[in-house]
Amino acid sequence: MPDEATLIDAHVHLRNVHDPAAVLDGAVAHFDTLAARLGAKRGSRVLMLSESADEHGFERLAAADKPVGRWIFNETGEPTALACERDDERSVLLIQGQQIATADGLEVLTLACGTRIDDGQPIRETLQQALSLESLVVLPWGFGKWTGKRKALMVELTREFGPMGALLGDSAARPAGFGDGPIFGLAHELGIPVLPGTDPLPIASHEKRAGKYGMWLRGGLDSRTPAADLRERLSRPLPRDAVIGRRDGLVGSFITQLRLRLGR
User: Fold this and answer.
1) What is the DSSP string of 141-208?
2) What is the widest separation between alpha-carbon atoms in the chain?
3) Cα separations (Å) of 54 from 50, 97, 118?
4) Residue 90 and residue 86: Cα distance in Å, rounded?
5) In CATH, what number is assigned to the domain containing residue 209?
6) Residue 61 belongs to domain spanning
7) CA 68 to chain centre
8) What is the pLDDT of residues 198-240, one digit of tens each?
9) FRET label pair with 139: which of 12, 165, 170, 204, CA 20 to 30 Å apart?
10) What is the number of H-type helices and E-type strands within the chain?
11) How many independent structural domains does the chain possess?
């Protein structure tokens, strides 16, 4: 059992339809449950944002001059990391990042990074730009996105860009009980890290989803440069027991997709 653990959800959105205070409250509740399951005596809670082009939650909270719900926000030693403090002394570290939609119907995440890349470019061009930045570059799993021709493309991209530093991302929405499949299997074979996260969707039931599924690191982060610490530590393969929390069941995954399409 670790005395201290850092709990991380590596794919989070502050959706425009969600109350950011509720997102943070939900994350604290989930992370506290996971910390108790680990037996950690103390720990840090980290949400790594991957905001779409129309999402600017990190900037809004960083500029907030009064509490949002029970939360206040303080600068850290880095512009891409924001310390969120609740009135009961619970805290969450918010890390800036972006989700880029490509012309190929796939997505690229740039985590622990404040630079934005335009949507709509071919994925190889997007990856090359992302890898030139000081960021964690991730190809995330998405419902229905790693099938058909895109599945073959993902295998190519994993072989081509994995050795250059591109990682893969897992999601709580990937139905539990299914095998890893050829893309995740290839990542494990090549020693490419896979970062798990919740990827909350813009539906009401996902407002308090963040923190449900992710990973843990032994010990804490560098308080002066937490984003740089994360970039360094998460660029290395994680042990299998680093993943913590639960993915959705098959029925739950399909209900979520139905709700998304119905706007609920």
Assistant:
1) --TTTTSHHHHHHHHHHHHHHGGGT-EEEEETTSPTTS--HHHHHHHHHHT--EEEE----SSGGGTT
2) 50
3) 11, 13, 11
4) 5
5) 3.20.20.140
6) 4-262
7) 22
8) 999 999 999 999 999 999 999 999 999 999 999 999 999 988 8
9) 204
10) 7, 12
11) 1
